[in-house]
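[[Encoded backbone]]
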Amino acid sequence: MTFPIYDISEETWAMYPKGTHEIIFENPESFCTKPWNRQKYLDKMRKFDYVDCEGDIYKVVGFKFCKKKGITKYIPFFATIEFQFEKTGEKYPFEKLKQLIIDRSIETKDDYFEKIARKATTFRELWLGDKKGGKL
């Protein structure tokens, strides 16, 4: 699995406030609100599909709490969570993902992310922009 990864689930898109592209840049993820009920949280996370920088699709199969790091050490309701992912064996087509991100960006009026997506030629560029020149 190559980070960052992007949540392609329609359920997530409908659930979170509009304008939130769910991108996980690293694992463990530091800025997560600590779940009150572990099983309900895991059941919710299992519904989501993630695409990595290679186009492989993954599902969350578990998670564990890790030692807090950074600013989360001082915030009691935040947690550092390490997700356990399982590869589904499916690939997500680049052009389909690019269009999904463009459509979501238009819906949320996120011109910056739309511009990144339109210029992207690889999965990695969809999340990180053009790294060759350092700018868009």
